[in-house]
Structures are given as C-alpha cells and as structure tokens.
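User: Just a sanity check before I run the rest of the batch. Below are the structure tokens for the first item. I only need the designed sequence back.
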C-alpha cells in the first residue's frame, strides 16, 4: 500500500512515491535533521516475519553502508515501520541503465567508462566479502552527472536462506524472475552458470553478470536471448553469445576479448577479480584503472598538465612493452620521465609494475597524502583519509597499500575507502608485505623489525634477538619473492668513515639470523634477482644476489645517478617492481617551507628568512630571535641557524659536519640546547652570544640509550626536559641537569610521550602521548608527575604555552591549530578547545622534526614553518628492464 505524502517513518517524512519492485516500494523522503532528501525503500513484510532473514538484512545493510564507495549506492540508515523494515539511501537523479538501453546501444567509449566504474564498485564490495548476485541493467543507475551507481547491493542474497543450494526457477519472463525461499536467485538473462545450477557462488559470479551487461551495452541485445526463462537458462549453460560485429558496431577487438573473458562458463577461466577486470578496461583506453575514477567524496582527483605528444607516444609504447607478454628474452632498457604536478616524497611501485603509489602534499592543506596512479596515465587519485602518510608499500596482490600515519601502521584499498589501523608505529621507518600473508615493518626510528598479520593480529618482534647495542636501528625492510627472506638496513646514525656496522642485511621469518650482504647507508630494494641500493655518491646500483646462500654473485651495476636521498633517515628515492621496473626521483623528497607569521585567524602577517628545508622553529623568550634547523641538501647536513627578527639577519649557529637539530632557548635566552649526531648522538649547550665553544652534556653514553631531543628548559634554567627515543623503540620524557649531566627519568610509561613543554611558572608540563591509542595532549605536575589531565579532544600534537601560562596551543586533527584556556590557580583545569586555523606546515621527514610552529608570548601571533610549493618540480623517471645493458 502506497504511503501518502507527509507520512512519518522515524525522523523521515514521505514526499512522494518513486517506484516499486520485487524488493519493495521506493519513496522520496525528507530528512529534516540534515535538511536533505533521501530515498526510502520499504521492504516486503516477509522480511519482518523471518527473524533470521531480518538479522541478515541488517547485517548486509551495515556491510554495504561501510563500503562508502562512489560507485555503490550509499546507505544512510535502516529502521522499522508498521512491522516492515525500511532502508534509507542517497537520492539519485538520472536513469537506470535499462532505460538508457531502450534508446540505443552505448558507444564503446561510454561503455568502457561505465564498465570501469561498475568494476570499481564491485571490487570494493568483493574486498569486503559482499557479492551482489543480481547485477543487471535495472540495478545500475546513471546519474545526471555521469556517475555510475550499483543499486541493491547485498539484497539479492537475502531472497533465499543461506542453506539453499539448488532449486528450480519459477516460470517467469526472461528478463525478471520472481523468487522465493528455496529458489534460484537472480535475473535469468544475467545469471552465471553456477547460479543457474543452484550452486554456491562467489564474487566471480558477479563478473559473469557484468560480462552480460557489458555485451548488452555494446550490442543493444542480450547475450543469452530466449523466449522463456528455461530457454534463457539453457543458453547460459550451453551457448556462447552471438559474435559481436566489431566493424559494424565499432567495438575494438580488445574490448570484445574482455567481454568474452568475462563470460567464460567456468569461473576459473574468467577474470579472477573485479580489479583485474577494471585494469583490463582501463588498458584499452590508456586511462587509469578504476581507482582513478573514484568520486570526489572519496578522493580528490589530481589532474596533471597535458603531456607533449611525443611523451605520450613514448609512454604508450613503453606501457605496451612491459604490460603484455613478450616472446623474446632479448629485453631492452627503456627510460622516460613522468612530469608531476606536486612534489613527490616517498614512492612505491606495485609488484606487477602497473601502479605507482606516492606521497605528495595536498594543494589545499599542505598535508602529505597518499596518491595512486596507473603507469601510463596522466592522472593520479588522492586517497582520502591518508593525511600525514609516509612510506607506502603494496600488498602482493596489488590490491592494498600499507602506510604510516598518526603513529600507526595502516592499510587502505588501492581504490580508496576507510583506512584500517594494524599496529602502533611511533616513528616508522618502512614496511613490506610478503607473499605469505605477513607484514614486516620498522615501528620506531630505533629498534628491531616487527611483524604483523594484514588483519592486525599476531604482532611480534622479528629481529630483537639479533639487535645489538652498537646498532641504532633496523629499518627499510623489503620482502623477497619467496615471502620468507627479508633484506633491511641496519647500522648507527653517525657518519664516521670507519663505520663497518651500517649495511644491508638478510634475515628471514623462519631463520631469524642477520647476514651482512654489503656495507651501505641506503634503503634497499630487490627485483629480478638483484639487490638495489644507493651508494655514497647518490648513484643507484644493483648487484646480483644468491638468496639461498646470502652471497653476492657479481659486481654492482650502475643503474642511475643523482638519486634523491634523505641523509637523516637513509631513505633513498627509488622503488622497483618484482620484474625490474624502476621508478626513481632526483628530489630529496624534502618539501620546501618558509617561516611565516600568522594571526589567530590564519592571516599571513609576514615572513622570516629565506625558504628552505626547515624544521623546529623556536622563539627566544624575548621574541627577538628564532632558532631553526636548516638542511643543506648538497652537503647532506643539517645545522641550527639563528634569525634576528629585529635586524632581519640570519647566522649559522652550529658548524660540525653532522646533523645538529632542535635548538631550544633557555628561559633567560642566554643558552641554546641542541642535539648533534657528530661522533654518535650527543647533547650540547652553547651560548647564543659570543664565541664560547659548545659544552657537551651527554656524549657516548647515549649510544646505549638512543636519540635525545631537547624540548624545554625548567623555570630556573637548571635542567632541560627532553624526548628520549630509545633504541628499543618508543619515546619517553627525561630531564638532563646542566650541572651533573646525569639523565633523570621524568615520564616513562608503556605508551609514548614526547614534545614536553614546561609551563612559564615551572609547575606543569604539557606533552603529547598516545596512551589512548591516538595522540592527545596531556598536562601533568612538575617536577613530580603526580596527576594528569587530558587537554585535547579528538587528537592533538605539538603543545605550546602562551607566555602567561593561561592558554595551551596544539595541532588537532587535520593540522588545525587549536587553543585551550587554562586555569592553574591551585588546581588545574581547562576550557573547551577552540579551533583557530588550519596549519599548512611542512611535513616532517625525520624523528627529530618535533615542531611545526611556535607562538609569540602574547598568544596573538604564530610563527609557522609553512609549506611552500616550489616553482619547479623535478619529474619522476621510469626505467623498464632496469638491469639490462647496465655497466659495472
């Protein structure tokens, strides 16, 4: 019975009827809470009478709602009305594919576009174990904007009990079957053979139905015609579809082969995944795979400038060269450039060599985001929800990406979706996903490698038994093709010429040993039997490797020169696929930034100094100077510099040929504490005026402890609160007195604490901790951490105090600079966090990059290390058959 306009179903008010079908009545309804129109489908009363069926309906609805995919109808809500369940979804404007097909066949270009979007939606659903079972033109909607939406996902499964395995279809028209419990499910003309037989089906059944729909889009006729349901079903079991006249219908032979491959009778002979199907369609047009068709609500599309015709021709030829099988073994090395719209830092090519993932700053926020691009495509897709991403790596089946963000190891579908947290990784240094279902990763800047299952289970240390005190870190793991052996970098952080510890090592899941393969100070790669690394002159080399014996088989080959390199992390800017397709960058991956004054609304007030690779701005107590880390990329060195804000001058403060960072002023402004990597990790204090030499507070003893970064001075300048990053992993807060130079623990827990800031009156410490699982800002007593109060809500890092101690500032989610009022008269309390503006800061590239901003004493101005888009961006380079014709 139709519902009149004005009828209320929960919070929804019926506006009018849209239509009806076998699965219920559909209405346009109004959601007054959000002020939007929605589609409301009332399902048959039979659902409510069957408790198990109703339970499965709710389960399926939740699963589909969780997809949040642009090519699947979005589910908003479920409910009950007069004993009938209803489903609330987005309201679409346009027509279904059946209505479109009534006019004429669809041209190949449009058919491929629609088909790619359908395959993309199917892939997302199949990844979550959801099979449609009734894919047909009536369930495919074409929106007015050209977007394809798959309807009724998951509902077809509900039309029969799970235990039904075989039945006979009722007599119905060839186009539509009526269904009931115990009957074959689906629409006859689009069933797979296994559906017709009543057998258990999997995701490959949807691919057969897809083939039938694609055939009909191209020809205007059904792939399996019949005068009755029985004739149609017999045709599906026994007949091949009529040949497509590729000339008359203007259908390419390649597309015709895709259709035929989808319609194989045996599921094992079809495409084995919707993602493979999407790639095959994308390859026909030279466009990206289905992931590049993601809607703006999931991903922001980044379109690069048009390439020159010559470059396009070269890329097309190269793509064809390595994507398709070749009869000859006489491979030839091919090399070409890929212009990029934005800076690229970390990058990873998929195992099959067809997709590239990379990290690049978002145009709007400046936050590092994960991008996916098909090799040969002029477009990249930004994966939503990956803010702060670092060091991506692919799953063996090319379907997922692992990456690090917010102190976590996460994974995300290569087509987009919600990231899943797998493990904690405070200052991660790379990961790799093996063919045997294990991820190995480096969770901290110091410490051994760990393993975890792709579902987040079985988290355990891997190389802890072979980790020794002379090492600072095991990092940059790379699985070899056998899924057992792993190459990784191990060593210490100093740059001594006689350092014999640092090198690329071999270990395995089964034999947790550590075998030195070659001395090196570079992240490794492995492809086509060769170990790749970057030498001290930034040249990329590859050496043949006997994995079974852990031996090199020859001299290193020169692959490329001037490879991007980050000396603070030993990360090299290259990635190789299983078969030797190489992508490398000549950029260091270090974004350019400039110190910028902003008011409380985010309005720019002026700039300080010159743009560069900057980090850790720290204002002097009188506000007249700022200390900042400046990297000299050519010299592979970082020094602390002082900017005089009154005289508008800049001077170098540290001079050792090693990384010196995190200058922190004493309360009287007379001294500056900083960390140095000269001759091992050391901790220095130096006068800010005059020529007096620096005083080392802590030196070689830290080789057994880890890295130490100054955070803030006590009110009487007698000690410095520091972040200690032990070699065993994690981060603690410790005190380093000026007099006796003896490190004293302040806050050491099972969680990680960092960025400790002592209040102006010296009675409190604000700090960041991930004890809740997410980074938040807390305050505790000083000098004794007797109690604590959580200051931030929903995430927070980088706390700073206002000069009078009455406000705390921090970076909230999406780098939103947030202010919290503070009352500390006897007892500590805070007000409600107030967002001020989004900080477009340069993303950190090292564990020593602790601060993006500092605040003026009055709390009215902020000095932000603001990301600056460069005028010129170096392109990436792709090399096919990278080890062919290379020279020693």
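Assistant: Here's the designed sequence for the first item:
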């Amino acid at each position: 019975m139709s519902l009149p306009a004005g009828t209320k179903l929960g919070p929804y008010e019926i506006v009018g009827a849209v239509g009806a079908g076998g699965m219920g009545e559909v209405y346009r309804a109004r959601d007054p809470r959000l002020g939007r129109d929605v589609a409301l489908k009332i399902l048959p009363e039979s659902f409510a009478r069957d408790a198990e069926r109703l339970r499965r309906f709710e389960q399926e609805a939740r699963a589909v709602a969780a997809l949040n995919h642009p090519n699947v109808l979005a589910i908003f809500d479920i409910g009950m009305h007069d004993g009938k369940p209803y489903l609330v979804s987005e309201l679409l404007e346009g027509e279904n594919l059946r209505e479109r097909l009534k006019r004429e066949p669809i041209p190949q270009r449009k058919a491929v576009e629609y088909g790619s979007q359908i395959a993309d939606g199917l892939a997302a659903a199949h990844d979550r174990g959801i099979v449609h079972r009734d894919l047909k033109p009536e369930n495919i909607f074409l929106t007015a904007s050209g977007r394809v939406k798959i309807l009724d996902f998951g509902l077809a499964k509900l039309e029969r009990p799970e235990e039904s395995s075989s039945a006979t279809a009722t007599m119905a028209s060839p186009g539509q079957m009526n269904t009931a419990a115990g009957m074959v499910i689906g629409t006859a003309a689009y069933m797979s053979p296994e559906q017709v037989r009543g057998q258990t089906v999997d995701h490959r059944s949807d691919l057969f139905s897809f083939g039938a729909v694609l055939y009909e889009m191209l020809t205007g006729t059904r792939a399996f015609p019949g005068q009755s349901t029985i004739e149609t079903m017999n045709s599906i079991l026994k007949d091949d579809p009529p040949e497509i006249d590729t000339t008359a219908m203007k259908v390419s032979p390649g597309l015709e082969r895709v259709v035929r491959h989808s319609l194989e009778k045996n599921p094992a002979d079809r495409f084995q995944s919707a993602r493979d199907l999407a790639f095959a369609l994308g390859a026909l047009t030279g466009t990206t795979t289905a992931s590049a068709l993601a809607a703006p609500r999931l991903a922001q599309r980044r379109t690069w400038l048009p390439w020159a015709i010559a470059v396009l021709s070269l890329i097309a030829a190269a793509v064809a060269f390595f994507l398709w099988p070749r009869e000859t073994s006489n491979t030839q090395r091919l090399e070409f450039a890929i212009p990029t719209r934005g800076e690229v830092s970390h990058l990873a090519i998929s195992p099959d060599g067809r997709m590239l993932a990379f990290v690049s700053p978002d145009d709007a926020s400046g936050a590092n985001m994960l991008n996916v691009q098909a090799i040969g495509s002029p477009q990249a897709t930004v994966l939503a929800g990956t803010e702060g991403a670092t060091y991506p790596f692919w799953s063996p089946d090319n379907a997922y990406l692992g990456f690090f963000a917010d102190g976590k190891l996460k994974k995300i579908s290569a087509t987009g979706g919600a990231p899943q947290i797998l493990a904690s990784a405070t200052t991660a240094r790379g990961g790799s996903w093996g063919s045997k279902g294990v991820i190995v990763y480096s969770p901290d800047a110091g410490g051994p490698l760990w393993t975890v299952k792709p579902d987040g289970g079985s988290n355990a240390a891997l190389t802890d038994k072979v980790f020794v005190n002379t090492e600072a870190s095991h990092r940059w793991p790379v699985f070899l093709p056998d899924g057992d052996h792993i190459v990784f970098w191990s060593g210490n952080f100093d740059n001594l010429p006689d350092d014999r510890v640092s090198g690329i090592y071999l270990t395995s899941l089964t034999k947790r040993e550590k075998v030195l393969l070659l001395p090196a100070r570079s992240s490794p790669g492995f492809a086509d039997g060769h170990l790749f690394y970057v030498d001290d002159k930034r040249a990329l080399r590859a050496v043949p490797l006997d994995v079974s014996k852990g031996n090199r088989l020859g001299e290193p080959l020169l692959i490329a020169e001037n490879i991007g390199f980050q000396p603070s992390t030993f990360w090299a800017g290259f990635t190789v696929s299983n078969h030797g397709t190489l992508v490398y960058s000549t950029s260091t991956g270090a974004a350019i930034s400039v110190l910028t004054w902003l008011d409380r609304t985010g309005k720019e007030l002026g700039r300080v100094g010159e743009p560069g690779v900057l980090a850790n701005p720290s204002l002097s107590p009188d506000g007249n100077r700022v200390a900042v880390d400046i990297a000299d990329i050519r010299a592979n060195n970082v020094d602390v510099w002082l900017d005089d804000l009154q005289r508008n001058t800049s001077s170098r403060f540290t001079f050792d040929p090693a990384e010196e960072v995190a200058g922190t002023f004493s309360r009287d402004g007379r001294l500056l504490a900083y960390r140095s990597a000269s001759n091992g990790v050391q901790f220095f204090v130096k006068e800010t005026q005059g020529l007096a030499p620096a005083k080392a507070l802590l030196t070689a003893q830290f080789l057994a402890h880890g890295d130490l970064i100054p955070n803030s001075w006590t009110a009487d300048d007698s000690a410095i609160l520091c972040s200690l990053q032990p070699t065993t992993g994690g981060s603690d807060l410790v005190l380093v007195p000026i007099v006796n130079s003896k490190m004293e623990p302040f806050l050491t827990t099972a969680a990680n604490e960092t960025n400790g800031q002592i209040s102006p009156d010296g009675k409190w410490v604000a700090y960041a901790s991930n004890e809740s699982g997410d980074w938040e800002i807390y305050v505790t007593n000083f000098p004794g951490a007797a109690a604590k109060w959580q200051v931030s809500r929903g995430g927070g890092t980088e706390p700073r105090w206002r000069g009078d101690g009455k406000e705390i500032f921090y970076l909230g989610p999406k780098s939103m600079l947030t202010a919290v009022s503070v009352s500390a008269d006897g007892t500590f309390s805070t007000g409600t966090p107030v967002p001020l503006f989004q900080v477009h800061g340069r993303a950190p590239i090292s564990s020593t990059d602790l601060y993006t901003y500092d605040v003026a004493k009055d709390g009215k101005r902020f000095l932000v290390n603001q990301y600056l888009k460069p005028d010129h961006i170096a392109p990436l380079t792709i090399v096919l058959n990278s080890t062919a014709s290379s020279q020693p």
